[in-house]
Amino acid sequence: QITLKESGPTLVKPTQTLTLTCTFSGFSLTTSGVGVGWLRQAPGKVPEWLGIIYWDDDKRYGPSVKSRLTITKDTSRNQVVFTMTDADPVDSATYYCARQIYDIGGFDYWGQGALVTVSS
Amino acid sequence: DIQMTQSPSSLSASVGDRVTITCRASQDIRDDLGWYQMKPGKAPKRLIYAASTLQSGVPSRFSGSGSGTEFTLTINSLQPDDFATYFCLHHNLYPYTFGQGTKLDIK
User: Which of A22, A104, B20, B27 is deepest in the core (most CB within 10 A)?
Assistant: First the structure.
């Protein structure tokens, strides 16, 4: 059974760094072709793809967050860490991590999401 | 970036109806597209991948078609659990982008 779960703070102050952890089970990020992505959806807005990390440590980032976002993996703990610097109120959203099989694309399994509010 | 234009933005239908949602890509994305169902407080669910392949475990009343720039999601014989918001998402190039979403509610 494949599961993913996002964890981290629910409230972050502007200019602070937002760190979220995706803890997954049922697959390995050492397996060729596997990736874990991050996406978010602000209230009433269209979802946004933020970035992805692959089994070979290749990483891709979306343009709106590229200068602020770092995604890393800890394969021994089955975790992917999302670190976004200089948080702004517009970053308030539900953040999701999700699995990708590279040859198929898209995301087949998702976490339930973590609601993050950026406010002073 | 590739723009995904999804329509309609909202749709009212009854249990048992058939509905169709469309996504148009701003350039050729082959079949690099999936359809997702989203409900508040729940993990998003992929229904269709590679434009027309039904995700394992998804009821056969869901179907997808299209390639290139035009894609459709069809739901036959709507069930109460199907009332949700639906998005298309392409993965042809980075950055991946979503359509604007279709909110399907009960008439």
Answer: A22
* Cβ–Cβ < 8 Å for B84, B40: no
Element holding A6 (H helix, E strand): strand A3-7
Contact B80, B61 (CB under 8 A): no
Q: What is the pLDDT of residues A33-72, one digit of tens each?
A: 999 999 999 999 999 999 999 999 999 999 999 999 999 9
B103 contact A CB<8A: no
Per-residue pLDDT tens digits for A14-40: 999 999 999 999 999 999 999 999 999
Between positions 27 and 86 of B, the ones with CB within 8 A of A are 32-34, 38, 41-46, 49-50, 55
Q: Note whether B7 contacts A: Cβ–Cβ < 8 A.
A: no
Best to test chain A binding among B96, B97, B98, B103 (most A CBs inside 10 Å) = B96
Q: Which two tokens stand for residue B78?
A: 């709507």
